[in-house]
Automatic annotation (TrEMBL):
Alphabetical list of NCBIfam families matching this protein: hutH, PRK09367.1
Family: Belongs to the PAL/histidase family.
Protein's name in the database: Histidine ammonia-lyase
Compartment list: Cytoplasm
A Pfam family: Lyase_aromatic
TM segment ranges: none
Gene source species: Nocardioides massiliensis
Main localization of the protein described in the UniProt heading: cytoplasm
Keywords for the protein's UniProt record, in alphabetical order: Histidine metabolism, Lyase
Catalyzed reactions: L-histidine = trans-urocanate + NH4(+)
Pathway(s) this gene product operates in, as recorded in its UniProt entry: Amino-acid degradation; L-histidine degradation into L-glutamate; N-formimidoyl-L-glutamate from L-histidine: step 1/3
One Gene Ontology term of the molecular function aspect: histidine ammonia-lyase activity
Highest taxon, organism lineage: Bacteria
Length: 511
């Protein structure tokens, strides 16, 4: 697969394809023409006598110094070297590829003033699988993700360290030579153009949105399994009830739950007039309301991400025959939704953990053995699996504390309000991973409980979910086994999307 880099915005799916799947990129003729037009404007300004920010001046609080022509190339190199000041462990390869791609997409708009060969080398690095080493810490999410993007720009100069296509860490100059590439000598404005964007936080937002779409469907699957195995009612998921509260996400989640529970022998077994269950606990009955609110928040975040994908973020930016300073590099729009998503991820995990906990208490599980144990007392069943869930949920609550409200001034008070969007994105990645694990444990526990309801048959959709787990090597109820490997199998089936795919193959696409 090859992703075209044009003057028009990238699709979110293209970002995931390049970042995770190694898709190739190619600059279009239109993008190349736009890049060259903008470069001609920068060249004209660089040759003129008038000081222009980013072309013939210093940066940030040093912007008042006029830089003579003979030092301007050095100005750009010094910018990258000094700004590549990150610290800590390297961030994930997919994050680096996403931010490289998004910076290339902005360069292709013809608003930054880089040369064609500089943009092309960035594309060549992506296609060669060369991933600069980007440290975890360094970005304040304002004036762009400066330190992370500088680490990438450093590789274009043949400096710093990279991971090659085989994952081997080596000097950038060595990796470029091995790939048949030559480093660039940055010219006027190019250093600034390579680092002044929200690409790191946006890349992580897009990857998180991709994962959360899968996890939202997964949550509906696991909730249906829990409702079914705990002898809950499906009547509360009827469309007529949710029409009374026209929240879009809620209605979609309720429709999914109704479909997932259709034709369930377990639900039918207690549907008669002799059933004394008036209504289920909130964690069962209100699943669509919570899942739906998460869906609506994800949709809002996706809308913000879509607008950011359509943006050309640089400072200064090329407009017609001039460059203009601006504040579009401020990451507030992205930072806020990154924080919103961490909040809803924590709450989605919280309701999942509550559903799981109900299985383990014989006073609330309606006939299931304590902790779903084979021989309670000798066996502990899923007792400690719920502890693991609880520990993760507690961590997710801490990660839900917003990063975007914590601004620390920098650059001698020139940059006196920053977004902390990079930090918000980093913690969201941990939140998504934690949510995946919490849902996986609910999946594992609910599947065991459904088996314990035999000879009653579950619904076709939930039965397919149980079957997938068994085919993946997780056995059904029995004496205690080493549980951690089974949890990891469930994590893989949830995180890869295999669970949702299997269920949708059985009953059709979920909303």
């Amino acid at each position: 697969m090859t992703v075209a880099i044009d003057v028009s915005p990238l699709a979110p799916a293209d970002v995931v394809a390049v970042a995770r799947d190694g898709a190739r990129v190619e600059l279009t003729a239109m993008a190349t023409a736009a890049i060259e037009r903008a470069r001609s404007v920068v060249d004209a300004l660089a040759a003129g006598p008038r000081p222009t920010y980013g072309v013939s001046t210093g940066f940030g609080a040093l912007a008042t110094r006029h830089i003579p022509a003979e030092q301007r190339d050095q100005l750009q190199r010094s910018l990258i070297r000094s700004h590549a000041a990150g610290s800590g462990p390297a961030v994930e390869r997919e994050v680096v590829r996403a931010l490289m791609l998004l910076r290339l997409s902005t360069l292709a708009t013809g608003r930054t003033g880089v040369r064609r060969e500089t943009a092309q080398l960035l594309a060549d690095l992506l296609n060669a699988g060369i991933s600069p080493v980007v440290p975890e810490y360094g970005s304040l999410g304002c004036s762009g993700d400066l330190a992370p993007l500088s680490a990438c720009a450093l590789a274009l100069m043949g400096e710093g360290e990279v991971d090659d296509a085989d994952g081997v860490r080596r000097p950038a100059a060595e990796a470029l030579t091995a790939a048949g590439l030559a480093p660039v000598q940055l010219a006027a404005k190019e250093g600034l153009a390579l680092v002044n964007g929200t690409d790191g936080m946006l890349g992580m937002l897009l990857l998180a949105l991709h994962d959360l779409r899968n996890l939202l469907k997964t949550a509906d699957v696991t909730a249906a399994m829990s409702v079914e195995a705990q002898l809950g009612t499906d009547r509360v998921f009827a469309a007529e009830l949710h029409a009374l509260r026209p929240q879009v996400g809620q209605q979609a989640s309720a429709a999914n739950l109704a479909r997932l529970l259709a034709d369930s022998g377990i639900v039918a077994s207690h549907r008669g007039p002799d059933c004394n269950r008036v209504q289920d606990a909130y964690s069962l009955r209100c699943s669509p309301q919570v899942h739906g609110a998460v869906r609506d928040t994800v949709d809002h975040a996706a809308a913000v991400a879509g607008r950011e994908l359509a943006s050309a973020i640089d400072n200064p930016v090329v407009i017609d025959d001039r460059v203009e300073s601006n504040g579009n590099f401020h990451g507030a729009p992205v930072a806020y939704v990154l924080d919103f998503l961490a909040i809803v991820a924590a709450d989605l995990a919280s309701i999942s953990e509550r559903r799981t906990d109900r299985f383990l208490d014989r006073a609330r599980s309606h006939g299931l053995p304590p902790f779903l144990a084979h021989d309670p007392g000798v066996d502990s069943g899923h007792m400690i699996a719920q502890y693991t869930q609880a520990g993760i949920v507690s961590e997710l609550k801490r990660l839900a504390v917003p990063a975007s409200v914590d601004s620390i001034p920098s650059s001698a008070m020139q940059e006196d309000h920053v977004s902390m969007g990079w930090g918000a994105a980093r913690k969201l990645r941990r939140s998504v991973d934690g949510l995946t694990r919490v849902l996986a444990i609910e999946y594992l526990t609910a599947a065991r409980a459904l088996d314990l309801r035999a000879p009653l048959d579950p619904a076709p959709g939930t039965a397919a979910a149980v079957r997938l787990l068994r085919e993946a090597g997780v056995e059904g109820p029995g004496p205690d086994r080493h549980l951690a490997p089974e949890i990891e199998v469930a994590v893989r089936l949830v995180g890869s999307g295999a669970l949702v795919e299997t269920v949708e193959t059985e009953i059709g696409e979920l909303r």
